[in-house]
DNA sequence: TCTTGGGTTCGAGAATCATCGAACTATCGG
DNA sequence: CCGATAGTTCGATGATTCTCGAACCCAAGA
Protein backbone atom coordinates (compact mmCIF):
# COMPACT_ATOMS: atom_id res chain seq x y z
CA UNK A 1 0.00 0.00 0.00
CA UNK A 2 1.87 3.07 -1.22
CA UNK A 3 1.86 5.70 1.46
CA UNK A 4 1.39 8.62 -0.85
CA UNK A 5 -1.12 8.57 -3.62
CA UNK A 6 -1.04 11.40 -6.14
CA UNK A 7 -3.53 14.21 -5.68
CA UNK A 8 -4.08 17.06 -8.10
CA UNK A 9 -3.14 20.45 -6.83
CA UNK A 10 -6.01 22.84 -6.25
CA UNK A 11 -5.19 24.76 -9.41
CA UNK A 12 -5.17 21.59 -11.46
CA UNK A 13 -8.68 20.49 -10.59
CA UNK A 14 -10.84 20.42 -13.73
CA UNK A 15 -14.54 21.11 -13.59
CA UNK A 16 -15.39 18.40 -16.07
CA UNK A 17 -13.45 15.83 -14.05
CA UNK A 18 -15.30 16.80 -10.90
CA UNK A 19 -18.65 16.60 -12.64
CA UNK A 20 -17.78 13.24 -14.09
CA UNK A 21 -16.64 11.85 -10.77
CA UNK A 22 -19.89 12.91 -9.16
CA UNK A 23 -22.05 11.69 -12.02
CA UNK A 24 -22.10 8.16 -10.67
CA UNK A 25 -24.61 7.37 -7.90
CA UNK A 26 -22.16 5.37 -5.81
CA UNK A 27 -19.42 7.94 -6.02
CA UNK A 28 -21.88 10.69 -5.27
CA UNK A 29 -23.01 8.79 -2.19
CA UNK A 30 -19.42 8.58 -1.00
CA UNK A 31 -18.93 12.30 -1.41
CA UNK A 32 -22.12 12.93 0.51
CA UNK A 33 -21.07 10.74 3.37
CA UNK A 34 -17.78 12.60 3.59
CA UNK A 35 -19.62 15.90 3.84
CA UNK A 36 -20.03 15.27 7.56
CA UNK A 37 -16.29 15.02 8.08
CA UNK A 38 -13.31 12.78 7.37
CA UNK A 39 -13.79 9.06 7.59
CA UNK A 40 -11.73 5.92 7.69
CA UNK A 41 -12.16 4.10 4.44
CA UNK A 42 -13.19 0.97 6.30
CA UNK A 43 -15.93 2.93 8.03
CA UNK A 44 -17.23 4.30 4.76
CA UNK A 45 -20.07 2.08 3.71
CA UNK A 46 -21.94 4.57 1.60
CA UNK A 47 -21.95 1.88 -1.02
CA UNK A 48 -23.06 -1.71 -1.03
CA UNK A 49 -21.27 -3.27 1.99
CA UNK A 50 -20.35 -6.49 0.24
CA UNK A 51 -18.78 -4.63 -2.64
CA UNK A 52 -15.38 -6.04 -3.61
CA UNK A 53 -12.61 -3.94 -2.17
CA UNK A 54 -10.97 -3.48 -5.56
CA UNK A 55 -14.14 -1.87 -6.83
CA UNK A 56 -14.41 0.35 -3.80
CA UNK A 57 -10.78 1.33 -4.21
CA UNK A 58 -11.46 2.20 -7.82
CA UNK A 59 -14.29 4.56 -6.82
CA UNK A 60 -11.90 6.31 -4.48
CA UNK A 61 -9.34 6.58 -7.21
CA UNK A 62 -11.72 8.33 -9.56
CA UNK A 63 -12.80 10.75 -6.85
CA UNK A 64 -9.23 11.36 -5.78
CA UNK A 65 -7.86 11.95 -9.26
CA UNK A 66 -10.66 14.38 -9.97
CA UNK A 67 -9.74 16.32 -6.84
CA UNK A 68 -12.97 15.60 -4.99
CA UNK A 69 -11.51 13.70 -2.08
CA UNK A 70 -8.19 13.25 -0.38
CA UNK A 71 -7.01 9.75 0.42
CA UNK A 72 -4.13 9.71 2.85
CA UNK A 73 -2.36 6.90 4.58
CA UNK A 74 -2.86 6.91 8.30
CA UNK A 75 -1.13 3.94 9.82
CA UNK A 76 -2.65 0.90 8.33
CA UNK A 77 -5.81 2.76 7.57
CA UNK A 78 -6.90 5.27 4.97
CA UNK A 79 -8.31 8.63 5.86
CA UNK A 80 -10.80 10.03 3.39
CA UNK A 81 -11.55 13.73 3.30
CA UNK A 82 -13.77 15.81 1.09
CA UNK A 83 -11.69 18.60 -0.44
CA UNK A 84 -14.27 21.19 0.40
CA UNK A 85 -11.93 24.15 0.66
CA UNK A 86 -10.29 23.46 -2.65
CA UNK A 87 -13.54 22.86 -4.44
CA UNK A 88 -15.18 25.91 -2.91
CA UNK A 89 -12.23 28.05 -3.92
CA UNK A 90 -12.24 26.79 -7.44
CA UNK A 91 -15.96 26.36 -8.12
CA UNK A 92 -17.89 28.45 -5.60
CA UNK A 93 -21.25 27.01 -4.68
CA UNK A 94 -20.88 23.89 -6.77
CA UNK A 95 -20.26 21.38 -4.04
CA UNK A 96 -22.95 22.76 -1.81
CA UNK A 97 -25.59 22.56 -4.50
CA UNK A 98 -24.59 19.04 -5.46
CA UNK A 99 -24.58 17.77 -1.89
CA UNK A 100 -27.85 19.42 -1.06
CA UNK A 101 -29.72 18.26 -4.15
CA UNK B 1 -36.97 15.19 -38.69
CA UNK B 2 -39.48 14.20 -36.01
CA UNK B 3 -41.19 17.27 -34.76
CA UNK B 4 -41.32 16.27 -31.15
CA UNK B 5 -38.35 14.79 -29.38
CA UNK B 6 -38.87 13.39 -25.90
CA UNK B 7 -37.89 15.57 -22.96
CA UNK B 8 -37.87 14.49 -19.34
CA UNK B 9 -40.37 16.22 -17.12
CA UNK B 10 -38.91 18.52 -14.53
CA UNK B 11 -39.55 16.00 -11.78
CA UNK B 12 -37.79 13.27 -13.72
CA UNK B 13 -34.50 15.09 -14.09
CA UNK B 14 -31.73 13.16 -12.32
CA UNK B 15 -28.79 14.92 -10.78
CA UNK B 16 -26.33 12.28 -11.92
CA UNK B 17 -27.55 12.56 -15.50
CA UNK B 18 -27.12 16.32 -15.45
CA UNK B 19 -23.63 16.02 -14.02
CA UNK B 20 -22.71 13.46 -16.61
CA UNK B 21 -24.06 15.52 -19.47
CA UNK B 22 -22.01 18.50 -18.34
CA UNK B 23 -18.87 16.47 -17.67
CA UNK B 24 -17.82 16.66 -21.30
CA UNK B 25 -16.03 19.84 -22.44
CA UNK B 26 -17.94 20.15 -25.68
CA UNK B 27 -21.32 19.65 -24.08
CA UNK B 28 -20.41 22.05 -21.32
CA UNK B 29 -19.48 24.64 -23.94
CA UNK B 30 -22.88 24.22 -25.56
CA UNK B 31 -24.66 24.74 -22.26
CA UNK B 32 -22.59 27.86 -21.65
CA UNK B 33 -23.43 29.31 -25.01
CA UNK B 34 -27.11 28.76 -24.33
CA UNK B 35 -26.84 30.64 -21.06
CA UNK B 36 -27.24 33.89 -23.02
CA UNK B 37 -30.56 32.81 -24.44
CA UNK B 38 -32.13 30.37 -26.90
CA UNK B 39 -30.30 29.69 -30.11
CA UNK B 40 -30.91 28.06 -33.44
CA UNK B 41 -28.97 24.87 -33.60
CA UNK B 42 -27.32 25.97 -36.83
CA UNK B 43 -26.12 29.11 -35.09
CA UNK B 44 -24.63 27.17 -32.22
CA UNK B 45 -20.96 26.72 -32.95
CA UNK B 46 -19.75 26.26 -29.43
CA UNK B 47 -18.03 23.19 -30.76
CA UNK B 48 -15.63 22.55 -33.57
CA UNK B 49 -17.36 24.04 -36.63
CA UNK B 50 -16.47 21.20 -38.99
CA UNK B 51 -17.86 18.63 -36.62
CA UNK B 52 -20.07 16.06 -38.36
CA UNK B 53 -23.71 16.87 -37.86
CA UNK B 54 -24.47 13.45 -36.49
CA UNK B 55 -21.96 14.02 -33.73
CA UNK B 56 -23.36 17.42 -32.94
CA UNK B 57 -26.84 15.95 -32.89
CA UNK B 58 -25.63 13.32 -30.46
CA UNK B 59 -24.32 15.97 -28.06
CA UNK B 60 -27.70 17.59 -28.12
CA UNK B 61 -29.37 14.29 -27.45
CA UNK B 62 -27.34 13.66 -24.32
CA UNK B 63 -28.02 17.15 -23.04
CA UNK B 64 -31.69 16.88 -23.87
CA UNK B 65 -32.23 13.47 -22.32
CA UNK B 66 -30.51 14.65 -19.17
CA UNK B 67 -32.91 17.57 -19.01
CA UNK B 68 -30.26 20.25 -19.50
CA UNK B 69 -31.57 21.67 -22.74
CA UNK B 70 -34.76 21.75 -24.71
CA UNK B 71 -34.66 20.98 -28.41
CA UNK B 72 -37.83 21.99 -30.18
CA UNK B 73 -38.77 22.02 -33.82
CA UNK B 74 -39.31 25.50 -35.16
CA UNK B 75 -40.13 25.35 -38.80
CA UNK B 76 -37.23 23.67 -40.49
CA UNK B 77 -34.93 24.74 -37.71
CA UNK B 78 -34.24 23.62 -34.19
CA UNK B 79 -34.51 25.93 -31.25
CA UNK B 80 -32.22 25.13 -28.36
CA UNK B 81 -32.97 26.42 -24.88
CA UNK B 82 -31.24 25.95 -21.58
CA UNK B 83 -33.76 24.60 -19.07
CA UNK B 84 -32.72 27.09 -16.47
CA UNK B 85 -36.01 27.26 -14.61
CA UNK B 86 -36.33 23.52 -14.31
CA UNK B 87 -32.74 23.04 -13.23
CA UNK B 88 -32.89 25.89 -10.74
CA UNK B 89 -36.06 24.49 -9.24
CA UNK B 90 -34.65 21.04 -8.89
CA UNK B 91 -31.03 21.76 -8.03
CA UNK B 92 -30.79 25.33 -6.72
CA UNK B 93 -27.49 27.00 -7.45
CA UNK B 94 -26.07 24.13 -9.43
CA UNK B 95 -26.35 25.56 -12.91
CA UNK B 96 -25.10 28.96 -11.89
CA UNK B 97 -21.98 27.56 -10.27
CA UNK B 98 -21.25 25.33 -13.23
CA UNK B 99 -21.70 28.08 -15.80
CA UNK B 100 -19.67 30.55 -13.81
CA UNK B 101 -16.75 28.26 -13.09
C1' DT C 1 -43.27 18.85 -57.14
C1' DC C 2 -38.66 18.69 -56.84
C1' DT C 3 -34.84 20.19 -54.59
C1' DT C 4 -32.20 21.99 -50.86
C1' DG C 5 -30.91 22.85 -46.18
C1' DG C 6 -30.91 21.46 -41.45
C1' DG C 7 -31.27 17.49 -38.24
C1' DT C 8 -32.32 12.93 -36.67
C1' DT C 9 -31.58 7.92 -36.62
C1' DC C 10 -29.13 3.78 -37.55
C1' DG C 11 -25.14 0.88 -37.56
C1' DA C 12 -20.40 -0.22 -36.90
C1' DG C 13 -15.83 0.37 -35.04
C1' DA C 14 -12.90 2.61 -31.63
C1' DA C 15 -12.22 4.19 -27.19
C1' DT C 16 -13.29 4.57 -22.57
C1' DC C 17 -15.12 2.92 -18.25
C1' DA C 18 -16.83 -0.58 -14.80
C1' DT C 19 -16.31 -4.75 -12.27
C1' DC C 20 -13.95 -8.11 -9.83
C1' DG C 21 -10.53 -11.84 -8.69
C1' DA C 22 -5.84 -12.40 -7.74
C1' DA C 23 -1.41 -10.88 -6.48
C1' DC C 24 1.01 -7.55 -3.99
C1' DT C 25 2.19 -4.07 -0.11
C1' DA C 26 2.39 -2.22 4.23
C1' DT C 27 1.15 -1.93 9.05
C1' DC C 28 0.06 -3.58 13.52
C1' DG C 29 -0.56 -7.18 17.21
C1' DG C 30 1.17 -11.21 19.30
C1' DC D 1 8.88 -13.07 12.68
C1' DC D 2 4.16 -14.43 11.60
C1' DG D 3 -0.45 -13.82 10.64
C1' DA D 4 -4.17 -10.91 9.96
C1' DT D 5 -6.02 -6.63 8.38
C1' DA D 6 -6.67 -2.76 5.07
C1' DG D 7 -6.04 -1.24 0.63
C1' DT D 8 -3.73 -0.71 -3.90
C1' DT D 9 -2.51 -2.47 -8.45
C1' DC D 10 -2.85 -5.52 -12.32
C1' DG D 11 -5.24 -7.99 -15.88
C1' DA D 12 -9.17 -9.56 -18.14
C1' DT D 13 -13.91 -9.28 -19.46
C1' DG D 14 -18.10 -6.89 -20.24
C1' DA D 15 -20.74 -2.75 -20.65
C1' DT D 16 -21.18 2.21 -22.07
C1' DT D 17 -20.01 5.78 -24.65
C1' DC D 18 -17.93 8.29 -28.64
C1' DT D 19 -17.50 9.20 -33.48
C1' DC D 20 -18.90 9.39 -37.97
C1' DG D 21 -20.78 7.98 -42.53
C1' DA D 22 -24.95 6.81 -44.73
C1' DA D 23 -29.72 6.77 -45.05
C1' DC D 24 -33.71 9.06 -43.93
C1' DC D 25 -37.09 12.98 -42.77
C1' DC D 26 -39.42 17.18 -43.01
C1' DA D 27 -40.41 22.12 -43.96
C1' DA D 28 -39.76 25.79 -47.12
C1' DG D 29 -38.72 27.79 -51.27
C1' DA D 30 -38.17 27.79 -56.71
Instruction: Kindly provide the radius of gyration of chain A, computed on alpha-carbon positions and rounded to a whole number of angstroms.
Output: 13 Å
Instruction: Report the strand count of chain A.
Output: 3
Morphology call of chain A:
globular
Helical/strand content category of chain A: alpha+beta
Describe this entry's structure for a reader.
Two copies of one chain form a homodimer. Chain A has five helices and three strands. Chain A has helices at residues 15-21, 25-34, 53-66, 84-90, 94-100, and strands at residues 39-40, 69-74, 77-82. A three-stranded antiparallel β-sheet of chain A has the order 1-3-2. The relative contact order of chain A is 0.23. Chains A and B meet through α1 and α5 of A and α1 and α5 of B. The first copy, chain A, binds a DNA duplex (30 and 30 nucleotides) through α3.
Key phrases:
DNA-binding; about 100 residues; 5 helices; globular; alpha+beta; homodimer; 3 strands
Secondary structure blueprint with pairings:
The structure is a homodimer of 101-residue chains.
Chain A: H1 15-21, H2 25-34, E1 39-40, H3 53-66, E2 69-74, E3 77-82, H4 84-90, H5 94-100
Antiparallel strand pairs in A: 1-3, 2-3
Helix pairs in contact in A: 1-3
The structure holds a DNA duplex (30 and 30 nucleotides).
Short description:
The structure is a homodimer of 101-residue chains. Chain A has 101 residues and is an alpha+beta fold.
